[in-house]
Amino acid sequence: MYSEKVLDHFQHPRNMGELEHASGVGTVGNAKCGDIMRIFLDVDDDGIIRDVKFKTFGCGAAVATSSMATEMIKGKTVQEALQVTNKAVMEALDGLPAVKVHCSVLAEEAIQAALWDYAEKHNIKIEGLKKPENTEE
Ligand code: FES
């Protein structure tokens, strides 16, 4: 049912934890299952994501997609991070079962919420970034 990559990222999640002095933090909730994902970004003055961590209270697919998504945006610019869609994360994981697609949407939304928070705090406009919905405090 799950690919090797999904199992690997679930069993050995990359970038799990939190950043004390994050430049941006995004927390989103999944209305369907109640699961919550939080992403912390450390962005430098050139707009490059130097570090990223996640905390996910959710299913295995949510943990695996958080792990893969953080790997995909680390070292990228904020603009590039915006291009990391749930589809791209799923492809990088060699797919997810259809009933688990919504879990990967949470990862995309959490990244965008963290980018939004970063942009707000630093008075920056990230082209193409929309105000996130489903955010949780
Ligand atoms: Fe809730 Fe996967 S079932 S995020």
Descriptive account of the structure:
The protein has one domain (4-122): Sufe protein. Chain: A (Alpha-Beta Complex), CATH 3.90.1010.10. The protein has 5 helices and 3 strands. The longest helix has 21 residues, at 101-121. The N and C termini lie far apart (34 Å). It is an alpha+beta fold and 137 residues long. The chain has a 3-stranded antiparallel beta sheet with strand order 1-2-3. It binds FE2/S2 (inorganic) cluster. FE2/S2 (inorganic) cluster binds next to helix 2 and helix 5. InterPro entries: NIF_FeS_clus_asmbl_NifU-like, NIF_FeS_clus_asmbl_NifU_N. One of its GO terms (biological process) is iron-sulfur cluster assembly. Residues 1-123 form the NIF system FeS cluster assembly NifU N-terminal domain. It comes from Christensenella hongkongensis. It holds the Pfam family NifU_N.
Tags for this entry?
binds FE2/S2 (inorganic) cluster; 3-stranded antiparallel beta sheet; alpha+beta; Sufe protein. Chain: A; 137 residues
Topology:
Elements: H1 4-11, E1 24-29, E2 36-43, E3 49-57, H2 60-73, H3 78-82, H4 86-92, H5 101-121
Antiparallel strand pairs: 1-2, 2-3
Helix pairs in contact: 1-2, 2-4, 2-5, 4-5
Bound molecules: FE2/S2 (inorganic) cluster (FES).
Shape: globular
Strand order of the largest sheet: 1-2-3
Query: Strand pairing plus helix content: what structural class?
Result: alpha+beta
**Name given to the CATH architecture:** Alpha-Beta Complex
* Mean pLDDT over the full residue set: 95
Round the Cα radius of gyration to an integer and report it.
Answer: 14 Å
Quick overview of this protein structure:
The protein has 137 residues and is an alpha+beta fold. It has helices spanning 4-11, 60-73, 78-82, 86-92, 101-121; strands at 24-29, 36-43, 49-57. It binds FE2/S2 (inorganic) cluster.
